[in-house]
Amino acid sequence: MGPLTSTFTRLYGTKGWLALGVFAVVLLVVIPLLNLAVPETSPYHVSTYWVTLIGKIMCYAIVALAMDLIWGYCGILSLGHGLFFALGGYAMGMYLMRQIGREGQYQSDLPDFMVFLDWKEFPWQWWGTDHFLWAAFLVVAVPGLLAFVFGYFAFRSRVKGVYFSIITQALTFAAMLLFFRNDTGFGGNNGFTDFKRILGFPITTPETRMALFALTGIVLIVALLVGRWLVTSKFGRVLAAIRDAEPRVMFCGYDTVHYKLAIWTFSAVLCGIAGALYVPQVGIINPSEMSPANSIEIAIWVAIGGRGTLVGAVAGAGLVNGAKSYFTQAFPEYWLFFLGLLFILVTLFLPNGVVGLAAKLRAMLAGRRPAPAGVAEETA
Questions:
Q1: Which segments within the chain are labelled E, that is strand?
Q2: Which of 121, 204, 225, 308 is most buried (CB neighbours < 10 A)?
């Protein structure tokens, strides 16, 4: 399938840059002021709940963007991206657990779960995790290395389509079962929680929360810009050609394995960074983040927003997770039914996603015919 049309594909034209600037000002100026400077009694105050919720959704938006780069632009459907997200979260979680020090329940240098299991020292994988820079390196290196090794053998073996999707789902399921074990040193089914500090600052203070929120917003904006640069470059055009007709690209002399491996590894690294930003804001990381259902949800975000449109992936993550936050509180037993119905309706009636619908409405208001699916993004 060719690229899907999008209202916002030319995001970086005059109107696009203006929209991106407004988005940045809202995230980095307006919300921080309304949260920190406006009293809680004021109707204009943005509560800590909303700061945490929006920050979490922005982390999910980065993951959706990473998924869109490989699925929407290269035709690689992964059902295991939740694994890379969780690995980045666990790498940051180990650092945060080391920062608790002797403030845990057992007043030991070891995390409480290790004391409970009668461990006497940190296992080898915890080496150096008391240093932030090493933890930050692990956030990038662990998901990136796993993706590179897995992708190298998968792409070299010409595994593609539904077979690749099934293998990625099996990979994340196997990792989830591994992390559920207490003897692996990752907290078992409880995972990591009860964090106290990050870089010496109390993690629950409004100022620290806002700093994490702003950092997440900056990473999301940078990811959008880098993603746009990638997909409009020669590299991105080759990815689109691989998606549409990989044998023809190979006949033209391109080594498609290298292209797919590069974007696949970059996508995994983006997920790891998102996971590292997610953990200190939400306050917990456990093996449930590796659940295959979570990875399937990531694909649903992209499909609903608009596959092959960077802004569509971000919008899809925001819409679905915003709805999830509401439904799980108001109608918790019906959330999964609503999500399934939404995915079916989008698949049947909005194959271009919400962004594709916006493009059609814009074309109708302008008095011209909407561009059909498959038209290159530059003509949107």
A1: 192-193, 197-198, 201-202, 284-285
A2: 308
Residues 6+ apart with CB under 8 A from 262: 235
Q: What is the mean pLDDT of each run of 10 residues along the chain (380 residues)?
A: 42 69 92 93 92 96 97 94 96 95 87 90 93 96 97 94 94 95 91 93 94 96 94 94 93 93 97 97 94 92 91 93 87 82 83 81 71 42
Nearest to 202 by CA among 126, 122, 129, 103: 103
DSSP state at residue 37: T
Structure tokens at 152: 């190298």
Task: State the virtual CA torsion across 19, 20, 21, 26 in degrees, nearest 10.
Answer: 90
Reading the block at residue 132, the tokens are 């932030």
Tally Cβ neighbours within 10 Å of residue 73: 24
Token pair 């990038």 is at which residue?
140
- C-alpha distances (whole Å) from 361 to each of 6, 24, 225, 302, 318 are 11, 26, 26, 20, 20
Q: How many helices (H) and strands (E) does the chain have?
A: 14, 4
